[in-house]
Design brief:
The protein has 255 residues and is an alpha/beta fold. It has 12 helices and 8 strands. Helix 1 runs parallel beside helix 2, helix 7 packs across helix 9 and helix 11 runs parallel beside helix 12. It binds 2-phosphoglycolic acid.
Amino acid sequence: MRRKIIAGNWKMNKTIVEAQALARAIKDKVGNVTAPVVLVCPPFTALTETAMLLKDSEIQLGGQNMHEAESGAFTGEISSEMLLTSGCAYVILGHSERREFFSESDKLVNAKTIKALEAGLIPIVCVGETLDQRESGDMKKVIEEQVTGSLDSLSESDMKKTVIAYEPVWAIGTGKTASPEQAEEVHVHIRTILAEKYGRETAEVVSILYGGSVKASNADGLFCKNNIDGALIGGASLKADEFSAVVNAMESAGG
Ligand code: PGA
């Protein structure tokens, strides 16, 4: 059975006090849920306080990004050790906003992924095509390049620990969701790429999350697909009711 995960990506939202309030509200609703794994990824400044608040719950904590170096002169950056010691078990890497606004390449995402695994963090590596790429028929090629580039030279055991998030750029924050069939098609494509490289057994244990305008009203349709193992949620993760309802949808679909 693949690990099912519902992850909230709070992006650049929530001060410490606001993050505490949101974490408290989510904890009240789904703090005891163990399947799926429930994960929140607050901004760096709110990690410690959120971790303290969630200590006696099952909810996990993740960073939204990290630097690939151990430490040193990288003004403004955050290391894997800083995330770990702030209570993180996961880290989102290569989000399309990082790729677009901060010029992150597959090569850089790969270096970060390797560092995260070495440090003992579970990377959630994001891939996804733009609308132009989809409309010009390049979707499969783009996804293949991102998957192979971002996950280059991972050992089989590291691959098994890694989580992938398919997030079509045209569906992020736009209110447009990929249909369950469109999402499933890409998830199968990703799993096939993994199977070619690592074999079927490894490909079958990698959790592949869908992200892009996921909310309570479209979660059921997505989660009944065989290869959709959860969600990475932006906007809807800022509302405790909505986020918890998506967690409950995954529980009903078989956690
Ligand atoms: P969204 O964001 O749910 O607001 O579309 C998803 C994401 O960027 O992870």
